[in-house]
Amino acid sequence: MQFLLFLVLIVGAMAFAPTNRPSVSTSLTMKSDGANFKKIGAAVLSGLFTLGTFQAPAEAITKEQLNSLSYQQVKGTGLANRCPQTTGSDTLSVNGKKKIVDFCVEPTIFEVEEEVAVKKGVPVKEFIKTKLMTRQTYSLDGVSGSMEVKDGKATFTEEDGIDYAATTVQLPGGERVPFLFSIKNLVAKGNGQSVKPGFEMAGPFTVPSYRTGLFLDPKGRGTTTGYDQAGALPGIQNGENGDATLFRENNKVFQVLQGDVVFQVDSVNAAEGEFSGKFVSNQPGDTDMGGKDPKNILLKGIFYGRFE
């Protein structure tokens, strides 16, 4: 009798147990040939970088839904870091100079180029997936700019907004890679004169230094403040015949580098002037103010924009 009662309790618990909810998929499946930064940048600009298939987030949110939420409803939910998405297959013609506002770029996949093997004395590099260490403050939002037809192509020029964000990822071995996710000074040329599904635009952008001029390293060295070199005997080894690595550590510089990005429009809502899609960006990481060579960062995700 006790055994039967035990079975009844087990079956009842299983019947009323909550089922596992499907996880929200924000993955972006895109092809990468594992080439170096220059080759990838050239491929992006020449239109040879294959975007591949894309799985839209299972819980995509629209701009109207975001605008309907109050500050308290958004606070602590991560929605402030999300880019809205739109639906439709309309066409937006670029006649004259158009103003684009609310441009939002949200990366969902972060990859870093690393040496994975050595074959016949030649290092083999591949982009490997990383773990995001930054809180949900890495998306770029509120970016604005202008779009007009130049040389027969719709060209977007970024002008203002939150166009860079400090981000850190962690490699499988534990090394952390900081970088400044950016689309600053972006000039993206399209493959047509109107924005519609399948429209692509690509171009270079500026990546400012991860550290500012007032930053001091653990030895108190900086660009505009602090010491010129490390103290004691190691400090005098950066001369003509000194240690090149130590010279780079002492000679702090504010480096402005360059990245490349390609956007592909998937949906257009002409009634609201909205468009959204996916992007692939390749940019350098932090150089520790000239002290080390930057790693190549490959970012994939979604974006949104609206004609004002």
Structural write-up:
The chain is mainly beta. It has one domain: Porin. The protein is built from 5 helices and 14 strands. The strands form 3 sheets. An 8-stranded antiparallel barrel has the order 2-5-6-9-11-12-13-14. Strands 4-7-8 form a 3-stranded antiparallel β-sheet, with no helix packed on it. The radius of gyration is 24 Å and the shape is elongated. The relative contact order is 0.19. The N terminus is likely disordered.
Q: Which structural category do the helix and sheet elements fall into?
A: mainly beta
CATH superfamily placement: Photosystem II, cytochrome c-550 precursor
Count of structural domains: 1
Order of helical and strand elements: HHHHEEEEEEEEEEEHEEE
Q: Would you identify the regions where 5 or more consecutive residues have pLDDT less than 50?
A: 1-40, 45-50, 52-56
How would a textbook summarize the main sheet? 8 strands, antiparallel, barrel
- Calculate the terminal CA-CA distance, rounded to whole Å: 74 Å
State the CATH topology. Porin
What global shape is seen? elongated
Percent in strands = 35-45%
Cα-based radius of gyration, to the nearest Å? 24 Å
Number of helices: 5
Number of DSSP strand runs: 14
The CATH architecture name reads: Beta Barrel
Averaged pLDDT, please?
A: 80
In a nutshell, what does this entry contain?
Helix content is 13%, strand content 38%.
